[in-house]
Design a protein that fits this description.
Blueprint lengths: L1 H20 L13 H22 L2 H8 L15 H5 L6 H19 L4 H16 L7 H5 L23 H15 L12 E4 L12 E5 L2 E4 L2 H6 L1
Length: 229
């Protein structure tokens, strides 16, 4: 719990400074006027107040407190790591229902081999499309737009059934999908609504502004969307 530990360290530093200013350092005193007793009492009272405040917090508030942001997280605790993703509970279907299922399915077939950040990037493209006036206004509508006559995502028109065989990978992308739907992670594609793998170069990629390269994918915005920004 990084922030709580930092708070305790700050309290300790302040109390040590208080002890120094009171002439405690290097001074011999009797038990009856020992300033360390006063310092200990103040520290216990302050830490007790901290513990009481933490005990009153609900689980969502406590999670927000201890989840590191990109600006203050170290290399080992940064968002988009496996450990960061594992710190969140598995999503339940009831809350997000069909939209969660559609997004998780798309991530499984389009990005399950990518890093956590790469999976969030693909999810972001889909959600950016939902927010764009040029695409359907739901996750499922975006994912299945066009069908076999002009699919937007290759797995929806490759002629093969969508069978989930890697259960562990699917559990991971479902968690990514849920967090993306709830806006937990910071944006990483700068508003992209298109992407392709590095192994291909579609004709539209020569005309669209590229916004990011993450893992095996390059990300782009449509020129009309750039003009609106």
């Amino acid at each position: 719990m990084v922030k709580i530990v930092n708070l305790q360290a700050t309290l300790l530093a302040g109390l040590l400074a208080l002890a120094a200013s009171s002439g405690f350092a290097g001074t011999t005193v009797s038990a009856s006027n020992d300033p360390s007793a006063r310092i200990d009492g103040q520290m216990n009272a302050m830490l007790g107040q901290e513990r009481s405040a933490i005990d009153r917090m609900d689980s969502d508030s406590l999670r927000r407190l201890v989840t590191p942001r990109r600006s203050d997280a170290g290399a080992n605790g940064a968002p988009y790591s496996k450990a960061w993703l594992a710190s969140f509970p598995s999503p339940k279907d009831a809350k997000d229902g069909k939209q969660l299922g559609c997004l998780a399915e798309a991530l499984y077939f389009e990005a399950r081999g990518e890093s956590v950040k790469g999976q969030f990037a693909v999810a972001e493209v889909i959600l950016n499309r939902v927010d764009s006036p040029f695409f359907p206004d739901s996750v499922c509508g975006v994912v299945h737009q066009g069908g076999r006559s002009g699919c937007q995502f290759s797995y929806t028109c490759d002629g093969r059934p969508e069978v989930i065989r890697e259960k562990g990978a699917y559990a991971e992308v479902r968690k990514v999908a849920s967090l993306a739907l709830h806006g937990v992670a910071d944006p990483v594609t700068d508003g992209a609504t298109f992407y392709h793998t590095k192994g291909v170069r579609p004709s539209w990629s020569r005309k669209f502004p590229q916004t990011a390269t993450i893992g095996a994918h390059k990300f782009y915005r449509h020129p009309d969307e750039v003009a609106q920004r």
